[in-house]
Automatic annotation (TrEMBL):
Keywords: Cytoplasm, Methyltransferase, rRNA processing, S-adenosyl-L-methionine, Transferase
GO molecular function: rRNA (guanine-N2-)-methyltransferase activity
Name of the protein in its database record: Ribosomal RNA small subunit methyltransferase J
Keyword flag rRNA processing: yes
PANTHER family xref list: RIBOSOMAL RNA SMALL SUBUNIT METHYLTRANSFERASE J (PTHR36112)
Location(s) in or outside the cell: Cytoplasm
Domain of life: Bacteria
Function, in words: Specifically methylates the guanosine in position 1516 of 16S rRNA.
Catalytic activity: guanosine(1516) in 16S rRNA + S-adenosyl-L-methionine = N(2)-methylguanosine(1516) in 16S rRNA + S-adenosyl-L-homocysteine + H(+)
Binding positions (S-adenosyl-L-methionine): 98-99, 114-115, 171
Amino acid sequence: MRPDVAVGVADPALAARLGLPLAGEGEAELLLVHQGDRLVLAGDAKRYGHPLAVDFVAGRAAHRRRFGGGRGQLVARACGLARGVTPSVVDATAGLGRDAFVLASLGAEVLLIERVAAILALLEDGLARARLDPEIGEIAARMALVHGDATHGLAALVASGGVAPQVIHLDPMFPHRDKSALVKKEMRLFRTLAGDDPDAPRLLEAALDVATHRVVVKRPRKAPPIEGPSPHHVIEDRTSRYDLYVHRRLEA
């Protein structure tokens, strides 16, 4: 989390567990609070728009699950999901869990690692609601979540999550110089909290050490690769690109 962004938490027990201040104990730019049946992260509406929540049951996640293209989706192809092949995946930069949910909906066991405490809380809440849903509970059961910074101690985090690191998926925050890239207020709120990832080369190095079969790195289509070894393969669509670092072939 960016050190200059203050997050207040409305619930005392949650604040204590996350190690974040209670709302009202200082100047908080963002507030973690329950609204209805869900936990949301809210900020100034003019700047950030609607509060941010993780919802795997409805909305964008449900639409992508039904109509997203199955194993033909870019993330599925990058992670090696093919007919008869369903590797286990570590999403070492979980974010809002959208790519992880796609992979889990296609049958993969997925470990999500998230370093930002407030985002972790949103993921916990979204997964808890998803596990109670009769339609997607089985999908959510394939998703495990741990709190930690994958740049430091990735092997220990993976071991604690109990998912074999056949594939490690990375989606480090890429610095946007163009303000127009932040038009979506939802992403503006997320980026304000998470910040950029200047340690991406170290993250890639850690992932290459831990993954047994491949590391896949999601990038904006025209962004340079992460500093370090060159990717073995590249696949892309109109807006995104995956750089693939392959140790060995995935098999059924």
